[in-house]
Amino acid sequence: MDLVDKTIVITGANSGIGLETARALAASGARIVMACRDAARAEAARADIAATTDAARLEVVPLDLAALGSVRRCAADLVARHPRIDILINNAGLFPFRKRLTADGFEMQFGVNHLGHFLLTQSLMPSLQAAGAPRVINVASMMHHLGKLDFDSFRGEKPYKPIRAYGQSKLCNVLFTRELARRHQDDGLLTWSLHPGPVGTNIMGRSLAARTLYRLVGAYMSPRRGARTSVWLAGADGIEATSGSYYDEYCKVKPGSKLSQDMALAARLWETSERLVAG
Ligand SMILES: NC(=O)c1ccc[n+]([C@@H]2O[C@H](COP(=O)([O-])OP(=O)(O)OC[C@H]3O[C@@H](n4cnc5c(N)ncnc54)[C@H](OP(=O)(O)O)[C@@H]3O)[C@@H](O)[C@H]2O)c1
After folding, report:
1. Average pLDDT over residues 117-139
2. Hey, whose CA ends up nearest to atom 47 of ligand 1?
3. Range of the domain at 48
4. pLDDT digits (tens, 9 = 90+) for 159-178
5. Ligand 1 centre and the CA of 41: distance in Å?
6. Which domain CATH number covers 40?
7. Domain-located, residue 2
8. For residue 202, what is the DSSP state?
9. I want to staple 99 with a disulfide (CB 3.0 to 4.6 A). Which of 58, 87, 160, 204 is the partner?
10. How many domains are contained in the chain?
11. Alpha carbon separation from 167 to 141, 252, 267 (Å, rounded)
12. Buried b (16+ CB within 10 A) or exposed e, 34-72
């Protein structure tokens, strides 16, 4: 698919997989909106990409997925400035070792990795639907296989186990994708989730120790390689029939975990998420 002049919004585009996704898609001639929480890091990333591409096609917008008010402001601003958004890549994510809560009192991984992106996607719908055949790409993880949904844990009510919270949030990404595809099967919107591979990034933290440890435990892929499936899903032709599916780091459809295929669970997560973002 020709991406020239397509408008692509990427969350967490200043670091790791998101940064390399933005760089590759900018090189294909698309207009890139980098939705990031830290203005200085976002500007440094924008300047880095602009050194090799057309700076006029790069835009930074503030977005803190850990605050639903920030998500609403970002979406309203984007809808006003971009009446058509062709592709949304919900990429941002985090993995805190200690329990943290979002501004609205949600467990941080559930709040950022899932709920913030849920609200962002819903709020951008007017501009997405104006694109005719918009694409929503959700960066999940193979760690969703470890995930279960505990509906009584979303506000951090339960003792915190980082991997359990991460698995739950990434299972949310895969279920959200399946339900989004089901709800939009007749209006042209296409959506996929994906595992980017084991990628050496800042996901475990920015310190040298955290980054080194993550590489030592097997995150051998470069961020550029890790961006491959996201970039491919943004532009690939002939994959419309797979909307809702989960892709691996080799751009192949995988079934995902058994729980991730449970459409009753997907519907329950969707309805719960709607209630939670409504306040
Ligand atoms: N790396 C892997 O091996 C791996 C494997 C499977 C899935 N993934 C997924 O890949 C995605 C990208 O992660 P990465 O590995 O590239 O990690 P990364 O280098 O840490 O990048 C994560 C991005 O998310 C942003 N972010 C975190 N909290 C945010 C918030 N509250 N609001 C807005 N943005 C926020 C970060 O912003 P700051 O720079 O300001 O912190 C950063 O831009 C995540 O969804 C992750 O779960 C990664």
Report:
1. 98
2. 93
3. 7-278
4. 999 999 999 999 999 999 99
5. 13
6. 3.40.50.720
7. no
8. S
9. 160
10. 1
11. 8, 21, 19
12. bbbbeeebbeebbeebeeebeeebbbbbebbbbbbebbe
Q: For residue 62, is it within any domain?
A: yes
Q: What percent of the chain has pLDDT over 90?
A: 91
Asked if residue 124 has pLDDT above 90, the reply is: yes
Q: How many CB atoms lie within 10 A of CB 159?
A: 8
Which pLDDT score is estimated for 134?
Answer: 98
Annotation marks residue 250 as catalytic = no
- Catalytic residue, chosen from 160, 166, 220, 246, is 166
Predicted pLDDT at 42? 98
- Strand 246-247 relative to strand 190-194, pairing: parallel
Task: Tell me how far the alpha carbon of residue 113 lies from the centroid of ligand 1, in angstroms.
Answer: 9
3-class DSSP assignment, residue 263: helix
Residue 115 DSSP one-character state: I
> Which residues are near ligand 1 (CB < 6 Å)?
11-12, 14-18, 36-38, 41, 63-66, 91-94, 112, 139, 141, 195-196, 198-199, 201-203, 219
Give the amino acid at 198.
P
